[in-house]
């Protein structure tokens, strides 16, 4: 089942759709809209606390996860976050990068939830 493609092409479900397993696709989408926000919250809390290790770890995990649905804007900001952590930027700048990641994913999440609704 081909799901609607977002006009901005924030993400791409082609890889998951090629599995040709509606139940698997639904499970993966539900997992993404559940797990990614939790990881973003952990990143925000880590950035605010100056816990660069947590921020870097979550950013790395999210890059892999987001790769499944080709969320290029989101992956790009995660790379920026990893680079910022390595450069030990000011924690406020890191908080700002994490906020940008959350905003981008909020747009993606809306589309994923619409896809979930169509699959159910």
3D architecture notes:
There is one protein chain. This protein is mostly helical. It has a single domain (14-119), classed as Four Helix Bundle (Hemerythrin (Met), subunit A) (Up-down Bundle), CATH 1.20.120. It is built from five helices and no strands. The chain has helices spanning 14-17, 22-49, 52-67, 72-86, 91-119. It is elongated, with a radius of gyration of 15 Å. The N and C termini lie close together (12 Å).
Structural key phrases:
120 residues; mainly alpha; Four Helix Bundle (Hemerythrin (Met), subunit A); 5 helices; elongated
Please outline the helices and strands.
Elements: H1 14-17, H2 22-49, H3 52-67, H4 72-86, H5 91-119
The separation of the N and C termini measures 12 Å
CATH architecture verdict: Up-down Bundle
Biggest pleated sheet: none
Tell me, what is the CATH class?
Mainly Alpha
Tally of individual helices: 5
Helix content: over 70%
What general form does the structure show? elongated
**SSE sequence, one letter per element:** HHHHH
- Tell me the domain tally: 1
As a whole number of angstroms, the C-alpha radius of gyration is 15 Å
Oligomer: single chain
Mean pLDDT: 89
CATH fold title: Four Helix Bundle (Hemerythrin (Met), subunit A)
Outline of the structure:
The chain has 120 residues and is mostly helical.
């Amino acid at each position: 089942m081909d799901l609607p493609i977002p006009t901005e092409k924030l993400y791409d479900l082609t890889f998951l759709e090629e599995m040709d397993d509606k139940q698997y696709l639904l499970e993966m989408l539900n997992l993404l809209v559940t797990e990614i926000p939790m990881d973003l919250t952990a990143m925000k809390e880590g950035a605010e606390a100056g816990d660069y290790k947590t921020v870097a770890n979550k950013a790395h995990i999210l890059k892999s996860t987001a790769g499944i649905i080709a969320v290029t804007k989101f992956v790009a900001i995660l790379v920026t976050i990893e680079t910022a952590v390595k450069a030990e930027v000011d924690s406020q700048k890191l908080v700002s990068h994490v906020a940008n990641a959350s905003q981008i994913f909020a747009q993606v999440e809306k589309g994923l939830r619409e896809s979930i609704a169509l699959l159910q």
